[in-house]
Design goal:
It is a single chain. It contains four helices and no strands. The chain is mainly alpha-helical. The longest helix has 24 residues.
């Protein structure tokens, strides 16, 4: 048996339902601090450093995906190279 329930609610409504505190003020204050520090040039608040905290430097299996992608491209690249070097084959 499978039962599905769909609830149409905003994040604020869900927080209120569970008794969690509102986050709007916290978010606004945090963004104000980050923006001030970026404008001042505080170390660690440059865009690259901030993004590094959000995006992992290495994805699991990324090398395998990259290798598969390049291996798939090799035959078509070799074909274009041979066609470019030998115009009589066209």
């Amino acid at each position: 048996m499978k039962i599905s329930i769909e609830i149409d609610a905003t994040p604020e409504e869900v927080r209120e339902c569970f008794g969690w505190p509102p986050m709007q003020q916290f978010h606004e204050e945090l963004m104000r601090i980050v923006q001030e520090n970026m404008k001042k040039g505080v170390s660690g608040f440059d865009p690259m450093t901030l993004m590094q905290a959000l995006v992992p430097t290495r994805f699991p299996g990324a090398e395998l995906i990259q290798k598969a992608f390049f291996d798939a491209l090799k035959p078509s690249a070799a074909k274009r190279t041979s066609e470019a070097s030998d115009p009589d084959q066209r």
